[in-house]
Design a protein that fits this description.
The protein has one domain (24-108). It is 53% helix and 7% strand. It contains 3 helices and 2 strands. The chain has a two-stranded antiparallel ribbon. It starts with 24 loop residues before the first helix and ends in an 8-residue tail after the last strand.
Length: 116
């Protein structure tokens, strides 16, 4: 014989909970403010990352449209492009070459001297 425990869903029966809260209205407002802050911060960070990495995102999107699937080497190449961009942002004045996103190659800026 199998005994099963009755589980209550996350949202309660039919998605509604008719139980009384065990905390005050002020506590509920503080929770709402904290959650709103966390979600807002995460949203801003996501937008900033997508904006900052837009060229890599567009390269990946173009490859997906062309191939429909990206395999591990494709993803590694895109990851290397991200690393190259991060390196250029960290040391913009000391770099004379710029990564060509998604190709694993660099291109030298025409107005900078090429190191020998």
């Amino acid at each position: 014989m199998v005994y099963e425990e009755e589980r209550q869903s996350f949202l309660g029966e039919a998605g509604l909970s008719l139980r009384e809260r065990s905390f005050s209205e002020e506590t509920a407002r503080e929770i709402d403010r904290a959650v709103r802050s966390i979600v807002g911060t995460a949203f801003e960070r996501a937008v900033a990352l997508l904006t900052e990495q837009r060229d890599v995102l567009e390269t990946a999107a173009a490859e997906l449209l062309e191939k429909e699937t990206l395999n591990e080497p494709d993803l590694q190449r895109l990851r290397e492009a991200l690393k190259a961009q991060a390196s250029l942002r960290a040391h913009p004045a000391s770099e004379s070459a710029q990564a060509v996103v998604g190709t694993g190659q660099t291109e030298t800026a025409p107005d900078l001297p090429v190191p020998m």
